[in-house]
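Annual report, structural modelling task.

Input specification for the 1,3-dihydroxyacetonephosphate complex:
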Amino acid sequence: MLVSAAEMLKKAKAGHYAVGQFNINNLEWTKAILLTAQECNSPVILGVSEGAGKYMGGYKTVVGMVKGMIECLNITVPVAIHLDHGSYDHCYKCLEAGFSSIMFDGSHYPIEENVAKTTELVAKAHAMGVSIEAEVGSIGGEEDGVVGMGECADPAECKKIADLGVDFLAAGIGNIHGKYPANWAGLSFETLDAIQQLTGELPLVLHGGTGIPAEMIKKAISLGVAKINVNTECQLAFAAATREYIEAGKDQQGKGYDPRKLLAPGFEAIKATVKEKMELFGSVGQA
Ligand code: 13P
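The model returned the following structure:
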């Protein structure tokens, strides 16, 4: 069932668990995540970065694929298709293409401009029944070639953006995309706590879910995080399983070169990763 992410995240925040946003890259990713969500009876958010949207043949292709799978695979759990780190222009493209949720990443604009653009997009998205995420404080690491330094958001700025009516808010708390460096200082729970005290009921979003230790994830959920984004971890799991298959020479045995066989171990590895995260986040059985 394709829905906006607003209700599922309100429920998650009230129920003290988090819904996973798993980024998709192709058909195998999408199918693996949707089937796992159904098996776990968990709500799920499919994240689509601008780069991945282009790679998959455009936003309309993505919407068509996801809608088709929901119908043909009998996916009854709540599913949102969400633009991840969207620019102003791409938010409009995704609204037009039928996404059920968007993220406007205005974190690199001066706060006044972030406010103006977010206000406009909140009105547009809500008029279409689409949920919207905003970001304050840039999240470090590299995503689609854009490198940001891990920052801690200013809680007062978070409150300002929260009051614009966004459905959920991503705030930098020392988290970064991709693998964490060995000398990473960890999440700033002080910042998270201060943000939650000012933003109250609003579901908070933790980007860069890959590699954050389980205890930190649980603590973040206890302090108001209701959506956790995971991308790199599925990519690493997929790559490792595919490497193992090739290195074992399985692509050269029988019809092992058939993509349906060659990509099967990677597909199963994504399923296992998503299941593990859903269990950790507490969203199993919450659909
Ligand atoms: P990771 O790639 O570190 O899991 O981060 C994903 C993310 O935050 C997408 O917005």
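Residues 23, 47, 84-85, 177-178, 207-210, 229-233 surround 1,3-dihydroxyacetonephosphate (CB under 6 Å).
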